[in-house]
Amino acid sequence: MQQDFVCEVPPHFSPETPEYLGHLAVLLGNGKISNRCAARVPKVMNCLRANPNFEVSELLAIGCTPKQAALVYAAVNVGRLLNSQPYRAGATVRNARELYLRYRGRFFNCPREHFISLSLDSKNCIIQERIVSIGSLNTNIVHPREVFAPLVREHASAFIAMHNHPSGNPAPSPEDKDCTKRLARAGNLLGIKLLDHVIIGHDDYFSFADAVQLGLEQETTP
After folding, report:
1. Do 167 and 109 reside in the same domain of the chain?
2. CA 205, CA 207: separation in Å to the nearest integer?
């Protein structure tokens, strides 16, 4: 029997929270928080938020010492690596928040939309992760046949769709909503259930399953 995919209301991740600012102050203070270093935190945070692909030279330009700039640059890139681990075959996917935490680093500085499909077996274990298509800055046209052809070959019982918004805002567009409905309906006909469509932003995510907007809530299998 297929296990349920757990929907959760996500906590809001904000770069203005004390945890973010405190960690950054420690980096700038070489392990200690001083008033001088703390005063530089807002400038550094604004720099990081304005350009995810920042260079060390940009940190130097706003007053960081070479050592501070190198520490911040290294810490950010280590964080990206730690938060960009793909699922291995056989791993179980529990909920949208787990997906967001695992993939946000991978897409944080990605300039184009990537549409990813995770094929699942009857126990919600990963069969395969694949990039279905790569779009532009704000557009990624996905046809159901591109998504379902490999799912049928793999005898998948379900799948999860996922894509990033380079703008950082995970709010679904009208095109995202239409795409989700078409995938859900096609999956319903083929017997390969769409468990969720997750949009990855910089500090948050949107889950169509959590929002009860998959498009099949009032439909039944013929």
Report:
1. yes
2. 7
**Domain match, 67 and 146 both:** no
Name the residue range of residue 41's domain. 18-82
In angstroms, the Cα distances linking 33 to 45, 114, 133, 138, 178 are: 16, 39, 45, 40, 49
Determine, yes or no, domain membership for 3. Answer: no
In angstroms, what CA-CA distances link 152 with 18, 145, 187? 47, 10, 10
Residue 216 sits at the vertex; the CA angle it makes with 212 and 222, to the nearest 5 degrees, is: 155
Examine residue 162 and state whether it is found in any structural domain, yes or no. yes
pLDDT in tens, the chain (222 residues): 445 555 444 444 444 455 555 566 666 665 555 556 666 777 777 777 777 667 888 888 888 888 888 888 887 777 766 666 667 788 888 899 988 988 887 787 678 899 999 999 998 899 999 999 988 666 667 889 999 999 999 999 999 999 999 888 999 999 999 999 999 999 999 999 999 999 999 889 999 999 999 876 545 444
pTM, two decimals, is 0.68
